[in-house]
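Structure request: CobW/HypB/UreG nucleotide-binding domain-containing protein, Allopusillimonas soli.
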Amino acid sequence: MAGAIVVTAVTAASAHARQALISRLLAPCADDSDVSAIVLAPSGDLPGLAFARTRALVDTPRINRGDCPCCTMRTGLARVLRECFMDALSRRSAPFKRIVVSCATAEDAAPVMHTLRYDPFLNDRYLYGGCIAVLGTASPMRDMMRQAALADALVIADGQPSNDLLQALSTAGIDAPLYSLAGNGLPAAVGPGQGGVLSLEGLGAGSGAARLMHSARASLWSGSNWPNGPVALRAYRWCN
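Returned structure:
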């Protein structure tokens, strides 16, 4: 397998929303025999995909480098990623070019990047490809902002973003592009001045990763700028 394998995290409080988004994002793989993907998810959350393989992700004990969730290495994820690579290298399974990790919360998504960065074996073979957060507008604003905090793209599960959500994102300095999961096909852009659709090929570890990695943005996590009172997001700072 030539080149780094891209790992993308998909986070949503709703398992149904995660499965729907993953299914749509990987649908183009069905028409491209050269692009093979593997979806990693908890055993009870595995989507049925005809065009992608699935592997159960067992959450084994984690290794903390610091006191914050982002400084956590997911040992279960690391083990499965090693197994996937070695199985393909030894031809026990087909080669693949992409991994999608299904996460219930932002706290689960943040250690994905940390694990890839600090595990030497994985760092040489995998590339963090960003985080996509699915937001349900019926959810409390606090919960939506926690999901959005580390995202490189935001997908509205039930239509258009509300004015309150747009204002909250702006106030918090979150500039991730907005898409809608409504309808069929790839999520379509709904943010001001946006166009096009969301695809895994066009996603990268951009603003979401930068917010996590640069402690100079620590004021973002202080809670003072967030709606609905202080939010305990200080822990997302990257600890070097």
